[in-house]
Amino acid sequence: MDWRKHIHSDFNIMMGKPVIIGTRIPVDLILEKLSAGETIDQILEAHPRLNHEAVLAAIAFAAETLRTDVIYPVLKTA
Q: Exposed, middle or buried: residue 39 (CB in 10 Å: 0-12, 13-18, 19+)?
């Protein structure tokens, strides 16, 4: 899946948040909905401008982004 065909970032659209091309739907919204238990079909029903490939692109974008060399802070718990 080449997420670059579906996602872009432009400071003039949603202040540069990555969005699905041709929409103002940010990738993080799609990921939040999936993590809350919504199905792809439910997301597509709520956002008719999306398609199945765009939702998969959001997941691929997140996976690739998390593979970068970044240190994520972890809170210590007792």
A: exposed
Q: Answer for the pair 5, 57: CB distance below 8 angstroms, yes or no.
A: yes
One-letter identity of residue 9: S
Model pTM score: 0.84
Max Cα-Cα span within the chain: 46
pLDDT tens for 24-50 read 999 999 999 999 999 999 999 999 999
For residue 69, the tally of other CB atoms under 10 A from its CB is 4
CA distances from 37 to 42, 43, 46 (A): 10, 10, 14
Taking Cα atoms as reference points, which of 36, 14, 37 lies closest to residue 27?
14
Write down the CATH number for the domain with range 3-66: 1.10.10.10
